[in-house]
Amino acid sequence: MKQFYLLSIILWSVYCMPSFSQNISAKDKKDIERQYIDLCKSINQQCPLVVDKVTSLRSVTFANWNLCSTYVIDIDFSNVSEADIEEMMNKLRENLKGNIPKMFSRGNYGVKQKDFGLLLKGTGMKIRMSYYDANNTYIGSIVYDYRDF
Fold first, then answer.
1. In what order do the strands lie in the sheet with 126-132?
2. Which of 4, 85, 92, 149 sits at a 20 to 30 Å CA gap from 103?
3. Angle value at C-alpha 22, between 147 and 29, nearest 5 degrees
4. Predicted TM-score (pTM) of this structure
């Protein structure tokens, strides 16, 4: 479900994007940027959104071609070791890395799974997912760019 909210933002931009084989014009890029910003505003009006039993999406922003989402995990991580947090973040990163392009390609948007990296590369976009615990303490972030896909 977490991927759904992130992907809904990404998928919206594909609808308005020129072909991946073309360079994206400055005008098209500006239009896409505006759509991301508007979509983030729309999602933020609905936040917090429940992602799963312990996770909620707090906010989504888009600035300087960085799509940033902030999540809260309703668990106190104060007694969790740094090694365990790092292991959790690495597993989460790998799971999301595999699922994001798959989910992206399932939509009727004319973008194949193999083209997901081209979307990110063509726009220069990065995806950042930041996580906080129940005490609003920063846990960690996951950042993707075109080289990850």
1. 49-50, 55-63, 66-73, 126-132, 138-144
2. 85
3. 75
4. 0.77
